[in-house]
Amino acid sequence: MKVLIAVDGSAFSRRAVRYVLEHMTRFGRKPEVDMVYVDTPLPPHIARALGRSNVDRYYERNANAAFRAPLAAAQKAGMEIKPIAMVGAPGQAIAQLARRGRYDLVVMGSHGHGALRGLLLGSVTTKVLAQSKVPVLVVR
């Protein structure tokens, strides 16, 4: 089974990672697990003012911060997880990656660090659920 875990550095995404690590046997004998972090693009006028190298460093720092705890937990559990960093609209990017990457399952937290929050689920979670052709497991 091929599993994609969406992370954003929040406690909810850490719970999603912990769930996958604690229930690995539910995902087959040797599941392939990847982790994605999608950063929202900076407004164009800010990106131009900062310059390409500063913007790249900004995105890299954000991704490293989001991956730090989940990758440490995976390493401690003896699981190798490939991190994937992207820039774009998070809900749409996660759903597209899941489809193009031929993942069998997307796992994500119920809320995160998104700028807008839904009443019951986070806005990114809601968008992934609406756009994904791949099953989504939401961990609360």
Describe the structure.
The protein has helices at 11-22, 44-50, 52-76, 90-100, 123-131; strands spanning 2-6, 32-39, 82-87, 105-109, 136-139. Helix 5 (123-131) links the parallel strand 4 (105-109) and strand 5. It has one domain (2-139): Rossmann fold, CATH 3.40.50. It has a five-stranded parallel β-sheet, with helices on both faces. With 140 residues, the protein is of the alpha/beta class. The two termini are 22 Å apart.
What distance separates the N and C termini?
22 Å
Number of helices: 5
Structural class call reads alpha/beta
Tell me how many strands there are: 5
Q: What is the name of the CATH class?
A: Alpha Beta
Largest sheet: 5 strands, parallel
CATH topology: Rossmann fold
Overall pLDDT confidence? 91
Helix proportion: 40-55%
Order of helices and strands: EHEHHEHEHE
CATH A-level architecture: 3-Layer(aba) Sandwich
Give the overall shape.
globular
Number of domains: 1
Q: Bin the strand percentage.
A: 15-25%
Q: Give the low-pLDDT segments.
A: 114-120
Assembly category: single chain
Strand order of the largest sheet: 3-2-1-4-5
The radius of gyration over CA amounts to 15 Å
CATH homologous superfamily caption: HUPs
Q: Which labels suit this protein?
A:
46% helix; Rossmann fold; alpha/beta; globular; 5 helices; 140 residues
Give a brief outline of the structure:
This protein is α/β, with parallel strands linked by helices.
